[in-house]
Design a protein that fits this description.
It is a single-pass membrane protein. By secondary structure, the protein is mostly helical. About 60% of the residues lie in helices and about 0% in strands. The protein has helices at about 5-20, 40-65.
Length: about 70
Amino acid sequence: MTTSKRFAERKVAKFQKNITRRGTVPETSSKKGYDYPVGRIVLGFFVFVVVGSSLFQIIRTATSKGMA
C-alpha cells in the first residue's frame, strides 16, 4: 500500500467517524451559569451614572421651581 493511499484511507475513516457523531454536542462546550458581556464594575459604574444624573436632574428641577 502506498503512502498516499494509506493517508487517503485514514482521512476517509476519520470523516466516516465524524459522520456518525454529527449532531452530538459535548457537555463541556455548553455554558453553565450566567455570564455578563461586561464586567460587574463597568455595569455598576453605568448604573451609578444613570441614577445619579437622574437624581441630579430631579433635584435641580425642584430647586428652580421648574424654570430650568
